[in-house]
Hints:
Layout: E1 26-27, E2 34-35, H1 57-60, E3 65-66, E4 76-77, H2 81-89, H3 92-103, E5 110-121, H4 124-129, H5 133-153, E6 157-162, E7 165-170, H6 179-205, E8 212-226, E9 233-237, H7 239-250, E10 256-259, H8 260-266, E11 270-278, E12 287-295, H9 316-330, H10 347-360, H11 383-392
Parallel strand pairs: 8-10
Antiparallel strand pairs: 1-2, 3-4, 5-7, 5-8, 6-7, 8-9, 10-12, 11-12
Amino acid sequence: MNCPKCDTxxxxxxxFCFNCGSALVLICSNCETSxxxxxxFCFNCGxxxxxxxxxxxxxxxEPAVQPAAEPESTPVVESKPSDDMLxxxxxxxxxxxxxxxxxxxxMEGERKIVTILFCDVKGSTSAASRLDPEEWSEIINGxxxxxIEPIYRYEGTVARLMGDGLLAFFGAPIAHEDDPQRAVxxxxxxxxxxxxxxxxxxRRWGLASFDVRIGINTGLVVVGAVxxxxxxxxxxxxxxxxxxxxxxxxxTPGTVQIAEATYKLIAPLFDFEALDGLEVKGKETxxxxxxxxxxxxxxxxxxxxxNLEAPLIGRQDQLAxxxxxxxxxxxxxxQIVSVMGEAGLGKSRLVSELRQATAxxxxxxxxxxxxxxxxxxxxxxxxxFMDLFEDYFDLLxxxxx
Length: 401
């Protein structure tokens, strides 16, 4: 199948172009329903297709135009349902950041390290053939709610809706230092939400299996916005997006599969199962990928070099000030201390040194309880206190209420 966007020839069965990443499925330009490649009319809305030729998602995203009621009247342009769906799930704080990124020019074409997430419903073609088109449309729209919300929760960007799947970026146009971690957490949350939704689908429509598969990769791409609305229709070029699509295509339904580039950035934080021997066209040797099993109960650190500890230098005055407050605490005078500084100056290291010095001082009788608020937990009430109690009482994610 030749890609309708860049005319690159792709192997049979490919769902995304390995040159530009465009979807190779036939998508109705009116309602964005995923169709068989030889379909002449959409089975959901009856709209004619382009003679059975594949349509890119960017083409499918063009707004439909209603015929004028009178010949001389002006055609009315409808807003797409996908636009409304995306708008509904963008948190107010993220909306402000996206508007600021657009106004500052961050959405113009640029080279960036981005974590790419592909997600789609497994077996949608066969399932759609057994249901009424309106029923299948209701099922897919319901699934999108559970697929979109976690991405926005971790401040990713839904770049494209593709029939029964989506493409999302973490790191463009809004970048964070932990974008790979955010992408994997979003993927795990999608699996959990779709698992619950699948039970509802089975109960209401009798589908025995309704699941999604997720592929993630991190790498250098060229990204740029198409249009200027808040849907942020992005294009992305580069080998990294092709590999992310390959991760999704080969993932087992109900799992998150990541490429080695992403694994190296988050290895201390999650449990994995290594998957060797993944054949990718254009690659001379098989690639290693990983299935994410879940977050570690006791995550390691992403900073520093494993098994290498260097002495703290140049912070004696600050450490002495903190030790003074600990001695006063031991005498019954409680205080609040704020440690502030630019990223990377060693705030966490200073607190770690204080904890070690406190434990080593036999004259101090102090119970140390520590809770952290992570960057993506700004909308979670009492996040640092929840973390503190989980650590103090040794609570694990799998523990019952």
